[in-house]
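Attaching the record inline, Q. Sequence:
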Amino acid sequence: MAAFGHTFPFYAGPKPTFPMDTTLAVIITIFLTALVTFIIILPGIRGKMRLFWLLRVVTSLFIGAVILAVNFSSEWSVGQVSTNMSYKAFSSQWISADIGLQVGLRGVNITLTGTPVQQLNETINYNEEFTWLLGENYAEEYARALEKGLPDPVLYLAEKFTPNSPCGLHSQYRLAGHYTSTILWVAFLCWLLANVMLSMPVLVYGGVMLLATGIFQLLGLLFFSMATSLAPPCPLRLGTAILHTHHGPAFWITLTTGLLCVLLGLAMGVAHRMQPHRLKVFFNHRVGENPGLEWNPEEGGLLSPRYRSTAESPEPQDIPLSETSSKGCCEKEHPSVPAHAL
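Structure, as predicted:
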């Protein structure tokens, strides 16, 4: 082993890692590009409608980006611990490292970072992913990890999520991830329908779909929490410490977005009841249920066409309509007598 610098030659070196998940990077890039595009055309909108339009676009893109991002995120349940542990199997050498566990809807991600990174003449910086999607075999991925000779802490945590593990974490998190992901896809569909309806003169139905978007997100969180809490907790002992998991950022941001959608849907329902004309103005819908009424932003209310010409005209009306109508009635009731009849 001395020829190889006191290292095991059959262990593969660490793979290069990207700073963040590539799928999340693609989703964030797409929505940021859409936001920048809308901001570019923002100067073409006049008056207060510019602010209303920007608020609608930013809120809608935020909700859609969150629903998609958390569906592919691996931070629904996270945990991290710093400890001293054995590095390789059949070796008495120990290392000091930070080991992290991120459980998502599609699999588990395990990170191992040495403190310092350079120990035992090696770069200890691992980031391994094991998936349990439909069509993916978690046991085969774990077998390939054994063949590659990954560090012992990574294999220990990955073994806890295998189907044959007595902890039962595989069936617990796989079931929770599958159904939570399905519910979130339904929420994303409701978000799309809400955007379509809010761009049409059916604002109340757009508010209903926005409310449904929030409800489905909250249902997904409820199912994930219930499914992951059914089995008793499995102790994850790593060297001299125990790794504990808790709800991660993806869980809490989904909760925040779901409550936001519910509040916005309820607010739109109340506004449709109390101030429907102002709701139409906020969404730039000037034609309401009564086409004879038009919103006048300067007056702060509705203005009828009968009085609009009078209010907007700088010249007063010479002949009132009441006098003209009364003269016409008098002529009908008392017809004039010809002069030659006398």
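The CA atoms of residues 34 and 276 lie 30 Å apart. The chain has a mean pLDDT of 78.

More tomorrow.
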